[in-house]
Design goal:
By secondary structure, this protein is mainly beta. Helices cover about 5% and strands about 20% of the residues. The protein contains one helix and two strands; from the N terminus they run ββα. The chain has a two-stranded antiparallel sheet.
Length: about 80
């Protein structure tokens, strides 16, 4: 039997469409040792990082979105 304390907390506000409210997204990197970056085989690393768009809160707010900084600047400024 589950109760209100057992349910996960829901984000307050519009859910971030990029991380689906989790606040984290997977990030992948490939590493190739040596001077030739296109040589195979490559080592692949997958890590979890905070969402760039909601800054890890799970709730999308345009004021937190760093990709909109360019649009916030006044023209010519």
């Amino acid at each position: 039997m589950t109760g209100p304390a057992d349910e996960p907390e829901q984000p307050r506000g519009p859910q971030c469409q990029f991380c689906h409210g989790a606040g984290q997204v997977p990030r992948a990197w490939a590493y190739g040792p040596g001077p030739d970056p296109f040589r195979v085989p490559l080592e692949t690393l997958v890590r979890s990082g905070h969402c760039w768009f909601c800054r890890g809160t799970g709730v999308y707010e345009a004021s937190l979105d760093p990709t909109l900084d360019e649009l916030r600047r006044p023209p010519g400024g």
